Sequence to fold (958 residues):
Amino acid sequence: MSKSALQFLHNGREVAIFVDGGTSLLVTLRELIGDMTPKFGCDQGGCGACSVLIDGELHLACLTLAETVSGRAVETLDGLKDGPNLHPLQRAFADNFAAQCGYCTPGMLMAAKALLDRNPSPTRADVVEAISGNICRCTGYEPIISAVLVAAAGGRTRA
Amino acid sequence: MLELRKDIFADERDDNLKEIGKGTQRQDMLGHVTGTSTYFDDHKLQGMLHLKTVRSTHSHARLRRIDTTDAERSPGVRRIIRGADVPRNLNTLLSLINFGIDDEPSLAVDKVRYKGEPIVAVVADSPREAYEAMARIRIDYEALPSVFDVEEALKPGAPVVNETYPKNTFTYYDKYDHQKLRFGDVERGFGEADHVLEQRYQMSPIEHAPTETNGSIAAPDTNGRYVVYTSTQALFFSVDTCAKILDVPSNTFHFIGGTVGGGFGGKVDTITEPLAILGAMLTGRPVRYMLGREEEMQYGPPRGAERIYIKDGVMRDGRVVARKVRAYFDSGAYTRLSSYAAVKCAAHLPGPYTIPNVYGDVYCVFTNRTPATAMRGFGVTAMDFAIECQMDKLANLVGMDPMEFRILNAYRDGDMKAHRREAKNTALIECVQVAAEKSKWPLRDQFKRASSRKDGGGSRAVIPPTPRDADAQRAAALQQRTTYDRAPAAAVREAPPASQPSPPPPPRPQAPSHGAARFSSVFGTRRR
Amino acid sequence: MPVTVKTFATSGEAAAALSSDRGARYLGGGTLVMRALNEGDIAISTIVRASDHALMRIDAAGSRVTIGAGVTFAKIIAERDLAFLHAPARSIGGPAVRNMGTVGGNLFASSPYGDFTVALLALDATVAVQSGLGAREVGIEEFLQSRERQAGLVLSISCQKPASADAFRYRKITRIKPKGGSVITLAAHLPTSSGRIVGARIALGSMAPTQLRAKSAERALEGRPLDATTISAAAAAATEGTSPTDNALASAWYRREIVGVHLRRLLSGQE
Fold:
């Protein structure tokens, strides 16, 4: 049999599934678990639309072999909200027009979360670096950078 | 930060509005930030199959033989689709508005005309199985000479790219190989000018590179219908295109779209839906056809390349008195929307300036490159790039400040535009003034005081005597009319004919007589 | 046929599995192998992995450093003793790619990728390779020349630490900042003795299908003080032996035009 058993934490919830050999984490999340928040943008690690956190570190789901997350904690945008409440990053993205078509937004938010989890008071340069692997074709990045800085400042606009 | 300059044209506008001018949350924003906005690919359907296409490795070749027998037996393959399986395997997008001749197959049959043209579609249980089957398809090509340059394509003896258009140019009104604009007498203008400057401009194709690639999922529904989740930017356009290609009534389809992961014009071509639906028809299963990133970048339609020649006559005092433009749109191997781009381009000449003598020839040319399509102001953007480069060079030539030079030549309300429409609601002067102010660029008082609402019209509203091309008489007589055009809605307000050296009067404007004008912004009426 | 994934406890077993199966590829960080699979490379039928902790080890305390093949660029950036490698590690991908991509995998990344390898080439690194015949050390230049035919598994790379921060320089030229594919990548190791360069090494990326040494430029530096005349001579010789190609990032012509300019800037310490 070419399928192998796989267990991991998906947004804090334990999942157990069987995957075909060679399946990426992106396909696993979207097609086997039904979490559509990580997006398919390139399948080559070039766009960041599938960015997720694995044990708190930013990874690209499309280039992650499913088996490698065995026993690890995977976080996606689907787990970002706190119950009915938006995460401060989500709030800031919404308030600062940091999304247009919305397709890069899940990856952007995860990249931003990876940054703020490690560095709660980033500089603008830190933010630029943190989202440098995420391509946005609509916004020109500026509203996204502002939104991350606003979220870091606890919702207050920073100069 | 966004700044609304409400002091400009304040009397033309009611600012006491409930929504306009007020900040408001986009209705889809909460979906975007929570990841719950549903894109076409976010549908998980039971038993969904995957469609991939085998694409031409040649830019131009005859297809001698396509052998899929080995691939049919490949594990996981549900169906191999060839050109013969497509009910109407020839289409052109704007045929929906009676514009152009069907020239593009969904799957190539006898010939391929650009590298990456789809030839065979494989529908399989998994992408991997589709790839394995694709490797077992044998295509025997007979390479043909290719042409990649618009001007080379127009030379006698150039390879014929697309047999529908044997001259390698799109045919307008059943007979013209390009769009023409004639206004005044450019040759006389050049004769009177103090300086004449001719330059060549070239723009490369530009890929939209949407983060979500083009794609669709088609699934059999009840009552013989099909549900189609699609990335299209032009949903109803796409419904009708599919109905035509698949030769069924359009109510066969239930298209669901609207949430598009970036389009910018690159998702209007209906390049995945017909095959996805056909796959669903032939297998009875949901079929997903999504372009990979490389396919999107390499074979997804780009903004077309353009080559533009501009020859201008300018006076020592800075007035541009004649502008002659020859432009070539590289449509690639098929028409898609480039025919319309050329129409828009001709209507846009000579840019937002009042120039008394304008002459334009705009060609939509076929080459063995990826078919081009819409992209943000296509038909206008590259021309503006060329025109504005040219304006800088002209300003330099006559020793004028480039901003002031633009204000001097800017069109004003009441002026006659080269395509014989009165200029209304012009605002170039104010734009230049604000840009100068923001960039702390000094303008002299007379240019600070200039206004789009002053000094226009009068002699500038007159259509100048215009020499006619040898074939102009026939041109006017043979204009094509579509069913949409029985009663042209926008009455043409034509200035009284100027005293003509030779009767008859200049040909009437041809633009509104055509279907393509219906979705064009350039012919529309605006406020006031 | 679906892909088979084989995970081994030791690198020896993994190396044996690789040599016995033509369709097997070793999966490090996934940035090369998963990409190939996603893009339909059906030649890959087996994925080999090793959970051997030795592959993740960094030994950077002494003057010679050894870095396990499975060490990611993020780990290099986090390691203070590897400061001389921070610039090349940072120049790769965005944060996610740096959390995934490994030093070993970078040796196999073809142009326009493989920037870290450019740095290693300038540092005269050696590559430890485990094959059916056992482990052996190969000079990086020799390794790169035969990398497509390499059987076995890369275990680690090692190199001498540069004597000073100024002795090792690295620059990646990109169209977009901070992240972007390489237009060209340059690294220079310039050990000095009594004010003269001894053992100059200049490595270039995206100037040929594989990373290569600019040996004419090295000869122009050898035994000389790093002054304007020497720098000019090295810059003038930068294109010798190179064979850049056109790609979406730049044309071969452009690469040839700029490589001397950037080498001059690198050598003269200009930003």
Observations:
- The mean pLDDT of chain B is 90.
- The longest helix of chain B spans residues 381-398.
